[in-house]
Design goal:
Distance between the termini: 204 Å
Largest sheet: 5 strands, antiparallel
Radius of gyration: 67 Å
Structural class: alpha+beta
Strand order of the largest sheet: 6-7-8-13-11
Oligomer: single chain
Order of helices and strands: HEEEEEEEEEEEEEEE
CATH topology of the domain at 176-298: Immunoglobulin-like
Number of strands: 15
Shape: rod-shaped
CATH architecture of the domain at 176-298: Sandwich
CATH class of the domain at 176-298: Mainly Beta
Length: 301
Amino acid sequence: MITRPVGPPTDPGPAAGRDRLGKIIRGTAAAAVVLGCLLAGCTADDGASPPAGAATGPTGSSTAAGPAQQPTPSASATAPSPPATSAPPATTSPPATTSSTAPPRATRNPGTKAPSTAEPRDKDSGKGDPGERDPGKGSMTSAPPPATTPVPPPSTDGGGIRKRVDPKPVTSRPPVALDRTARVEDDLTVRIEKTRAIDAEAKLPGEIAGPGVVFELVAENRTGQPVDLGAVVVECTDASGAPCGRISTEPADPFTGTLEPGDTARGSYVFVIDKAERKNVTVIVTLTGDRPVVRFEGPVG
């Protein structure tokens, strides 16, 4: 067994002291780094989001903006963290706004079926073309084309509203006595069968009541053609030549209808005539506008 001689401890010297001091500084720096990482992780777990532009450290945790603490230079394997640079603050765009509000959505009972907006289809032809629906058959029928009326071409004979029509001359037969028969045409005659005085009553607007005379006329057609009596005109003037007022109500009963060949027709006409003007009365009869006019003259009672 070999024993070493025990002697006083040897002095490590200045170099050993510096080495020990460096180890202490490096351990302190490493502990500070680990403590900072732990504090950063706890803050992230509490829900606080890192500010915009924060730099990320070597361990993945975010650190505050600004220059990081520089560890004391050492020969350890852990490299000092570079200074972090803060990013420019992000701009937040204003929320988009709509110019109009959306219309409310229609709600319906879940148990009911939504009405269909499709056009009905023709059950017979299977076509869905729009048209007019026949309510009786429930089918679609096409609309009929619009009716057109042909317009005749304009007249080329020179007629029109500006054309002047020369008046047709009226032929007047010579006057006859009140008790005679007047000839309008061959085999077409008119006569005053009876006269009688009455007190005429005015019943229509424009009529004037007073002493009147009833003239009962008879027309006879011996021609082969019918005569229209719907436009017969009977006028009367008194002794002074003034027209006499006509009464159109009862006992007046003018000519009407058609006078057939071989028939006779009767008509009654009432005029208001002053008794002092009955010495020479004129009765003018126009059966039709295209036939001559006949006249009766004489005194009446």
